[in-house]
Amino acid sequence: MTPEDVKAFFDAHWTVRRFKTFELPREHLDVLLHAAQRAPTDATAQMYSFVQLRDPALRARIGELTGNPHFAAASVAFVVCADVYRLRRVLEARGYPYGKWPAAAVHFSIGDAVMAAQNMLIAAEMLGYRGCWIGGVLSALPEVMELLALPELVFPFAGLVVGVPDEAPKSRPRVARSLILHEDRYRLPTGAEIEGALADMAPITARGDWAQTLAGYFALGGTMEARDVTLQAVLARQGFSHVRSFDEAFARAETLGFADLRVRRRGEGFEAWLDRVEAAHRGEGNSPLQALLEAIEDASQAAHGWEG
Ligand SMILES: Cc1cc2nc3c(=O)[nH]c(=O)nc-3n(C[C@H](O)[C@H](O)[C@H](O)COP(=O)(O)O)c2cc1C
Fold this sequence. Notes:
Keywords: Flavoprotein, FMN, Oxidoreductase. By secondary structure, this protein is α+β, with helices and mostly antiparallel strands.
C-alpha cells in the first residue's frame, strides 16, 4: 500500500446507522474477531470481552433501551466490555491474591477494549463493511448489564455494530491537526484556533453550531452528567472503586441501597452493620473503616443482580 492508499482507506471511514438486511458470512466474522484479538494489549492481559448479540429480541431490546436501533438492523452487533474478571481468575488459579488497583483497572481495561474493538472495525472496513460505535449503552447501563449477566469486574464500554450500509457515504470533518498534535510540550490553543475548530466542525451539525451539539452532551445539564452518576455507581458495584475515607465508604454503602449504618467497638477491634429492611451485612476490622469496608464487601457480593 502506498501512503496515498493508506490515507484514502482512512478517508473512506464513515459511521453508518442504517444497514441493509445482510447475513455476515462466517469467514468474515472470523476475520473481525481475529483482528480484534491481534490488537496490542497491556502487559499481555487482554482485559476485554465482546458479547455478541445474536438473539433478535435481545438486539431489539438493547436498541430500544439505548436509543440506537442500529443494534438490531446491522449484520452483527457486540457489546464491547472492559473485563478484569478473567484476569483475576487467572491469578487466583495459581494462588495469587488479586491486587488493589481499581482506578488503573478502569484505565487499562478500557484501553484494551477500545484497541481490540477498533481493530475489529478497521478489519470490517477493509472487507467493505461499515459500522457504528454505540456509546448510547451508557444511557441504560444497569439494564444492559443485567440482560448480559455481566459478573463483577466487567462493565460495558460501548456497543459496536457492523454491516452493509443503506445510506450514502458521509465524510465528517475533524479539527485542524495543529490542535491535536503538540510538539515536545502541550501548547494551549488560542481563541482564534478554537473559533477555527468551531468553523471546521460546523458542517457536522444540522444547525451549523458544533458547540450547541456538544453542549447537549457535555455542558451543565447535558446527558453526560446523568450518565456519570450511573457510571460511578456501576463502577463501585462492579468492584472498581477506591474507598479511602469513611465518607466515601458511607457513600458506597448508600449506592448499594444501605442508608442505615452502625459501627461499634468490639473487643480489640470494630464491628460494622449495614441494614435495610430485607437484608443486613456485617463486617469486622481493626478500624471502623476496615469493619465497614468488610460489611460493604459482603453487601456487594450479595447485591449481585442489581436489586439495590
Ligand atoms: C465511543 C464512541 C461512542 C459513540 N456512540 C455513538 C452512539 O451512541 N450512537 C451513534 O449513532 N453513533 C455513535 N458514535 C459514532 C460517532 O458519532 C461518530 O464516530 C462521529 O460522529 C464521527 O463520525 P465518523 O465516524 O463518520 O467520522 C460513537 C463513536 C464513538 C467512538
